[in-house]
Write a structure and sequence with these properties.
This protein is of the alpha+beta class. It has 2 domains: 284 residues, L-amino peptidase D-ALA esterase/amidase (4-Layer Sandwich); 123 residues, Ubiquitin-like (UB roll), CATH 3.10.20.340. 31% of the residues lie in helices and 25% in strands. It has 12 helices and 15 strands. Strands 1, 2, 3, 4, 5, 6, 7, 8 and 9 form a 9-stranded mixed sheet that branches. Strands 13-12-11-14-10-15 form a 6-stranded mixed sheet. It is globular, with a radius of gyration of 22 Å.
């Protein structure tokens, strides 16, 4: 696993979405498949009172709060949107929610009955949890364009909800994974008005990652007290600097959703303005989402390395973001990192076609990792460096690309990964 980034005032703890008090979770294998069950398959499973393919990878998760929460979300800007997004938008329009129900394997997207199935998932969960279906957030991820079979979900819902636990975060995070090879979760402690607060999150995302929101499903929980308006404001402010600064393959997903629930059980004075407590809360959210973003980039499909690109010296933040993201989305540069080849010309090429204004003759580039730091470009031109030392530097799992484009005061960070043979293998048979 990659390293977590330390920040003053925030202590990392275990527990993911269950770290904050008052949140339970669970995940089970209910038997979803890339295609709907046939009538014979469904009847056979029902007759034998078993879940299809029982014992395999978990594919259905639930998160449940002990009380009603302030809730907020941000969604994909793709014109093609998964059916669960429409239902979730409707359910949290009032700013409140209490539970999340989410499946993997099938995205429930581009289906005529998609919203009907998404609503049914909420109804099934609500019935088992004893809450209103309008207080349930619903999400799906997986293959696009195949009808979601509701029978396995209906069959598995009692077991899923009965197994809710304050230690159920690991089961839940496994259930939302698709091509992910590693679970992605993080939690931190922080202080608001003298009260200890906790925030935790989990994320799935490995391929189809090029956000204009957050190409992923991510769920965040906190016991801090904050009004829905300011919860939404904080989430909308932090997403552009974290999940939106990740790219694996340049494809933007249809089911992206990042949602957060705050139950107020920490006992801090409710945040109702942009005061000092709001700033601390927003920083905690940054810590959570930035670390999840790094985990997602490192676990890009087929990836062997995390690439972090820092662009500094820009006259404005937009320029810094554009340059940093241009570099981490360059297929040529990503392939060079996989080959551990310090081909810095590919970096400068990507800097050069970025849609931003700056003087290319003032650009400096350095490569850095746990093995050291090497200057490869100064004032837009190459400088002598040891290819042997550069290769050793690129053998590390985490690679920093540090770009300075002038003497401005603005900077930005973007995260990506190398491009490997395995990426094509994974996506060549994704549905099989």
């Amino acid at each position: 696993m990659i390293s977590k980034v330390d920040f003053d005032g925030f202590k990392y703890i275990d527990g993911g979405v269950c770290a904050a008090q008052g949140f339970k979770a669970n995940g089970i294998h209910c038997g979803l498949a890339h295609k709907p069950l046939t009538e014979t398959e469904g009847n056979s499973a029902a007759a034998n009172n078993v879940l299809p393919s029982a014992g395999k990878k978990k594919d259905l998760a639930v998160i449940m709060a002990d009380n009603l929460c302030s809730a907020a979300a941000v969604y994909t800007s793709n014109k093609v949107k998964g059916a669960p997004i429409a239902v979730t938008k409707e359910h949290i329009e009032n700013g409140f929610a209490r539970a999340v129900i989410v499946n993997s394997v099938n995205a429930n997207t581009c289906n005529a009955d998609g919203e009907e199935k998404a609503r049914k998932m909420c109804e099934l969960a609500a019935a088992q949890l004893g809450i209103s279906d309008s207080d349930v957030i619903v999400a799906s991820t997986g293959v696009i364009g195949q009808v979601l079979p509701i029978e396995p979900i209906e069959k598995g819902m009692p077991e899923l909800c009965k197994g809710l636990s304050y230690e159920g975060n690991s089961a839940a995070v496994e259930a939302i994974m698709t091509t992910d090879t590693q679970p992605k979760e993080v939690a931190v402690e922080f202080v608001l008005g003298g009260k200890k607060c906790v925030m935790g999150g989990m994320l799935k995302g490995s391929g189809m990652i090029h956000p204009n929101m957050a190409t992923t499903l991510s769920f965040i929980t906190t016991d801090a007290a904050i009004a829905p308006e300011y919860l939404q404001r904080a989430l909308s402010e932090i997403i552009p600097n974290t999940l939106n600064m990740v790219s694996v393959d340049g494809d933007q997903s249809t089911n992206d959703m990042c949602c957060i629930m705050a139950n107020g059980m920490a006992g801090n004075a409710e945040i109702k303005s942009e005061n000092d407590d709001y700033d601390v809360f927003a920083n905690a959210l940054y810590v959570i989402l930035m670390n999840l973003a790094r985990m997602m980039a490192r676990d890009g499909e087929g990836a062997t390395k995390l690439i972090e690109c820092i662009c500094a010296g820009a006259d404005d933040v937009r320029t810094a973001k554009t340059v940093a993201k241009s570099v981490i989305t360059s297929s040529l540069f990503k392939a060079a990192v996989f080959g551990e080849d310090a081909n810095w010309g590919r970096i400068l090429c990507a800097v050069g076609y970025a849609d931003a204004e700056f003087d290319i003759n003032k650009v400096d580039v350095d490569l850095k990792s746990a093995a050291g730091k090497i200057a490869v470009c100064r004032n837009g031109a190459g400088v002598e460096f040891s290819e042997e030392a550069a290769k050793k530097l690129l053998e590390e799992e985490e690679i920093d690309v540090i770009i300075t484009i002038g003497d401005g005061e603005c900077s930005a960070v973007a995260w990506g990964c190398d491009l490997t043979y395995d990426y094509v293998k994974i996506n060549g048979d994704y549905r099989s």
